[in-house]
Amino acid sequence: MLCFNIAEPESLHNAAAKWYREVRTHGGSAPVLLCGCKADLRHEKETLTMLSKLRTHPVTSEEVTPDKYYITESIKFDILMYTNKS
Question: Are 34 and 82 in contact (CB under 8 A)?
């Protein structure tokens, strides 16, 4: 299971660029579950204000969808299932 913070888009990038590689190196072809954590922050005013100042936004479910590829730095990140939790 790879987790990332919905309120920190960079953490999704890290999940793909760093941790997915680690799973593949040490876990072989084990299925990967991607979990977006802190979903309650997606609509929190303070979080939205902070991210707005950084010209970004919380990661949305549409940005990470099941059965599609998340591509970053030439990595094909095959997502079998995506969930988000508070």
Answer: yes
Which of the following CATH numbers is that of domain 2-85: 3.40.50.800, 3.20.20.80, 3.40.50.300, 3.40.50.1110? 3.40.50.300
Measured between alpha carbons, how far is 58 from 75 in angstroms, rounded to an integer? 22
Give the tens place of pLDDT for each residue, 51-73: 999 999 998 877 776 544 444 44
> Contact at 8 Å (CB) between 66 and 81?
yes
- How buried is 71 (Cβ within 10 angstroms: 0-12 exposed, 13-18 middle, 19+ buried)? exposed
52 token code pair? 């707005």
Q: What is the pTM of this model?
A: 0.69
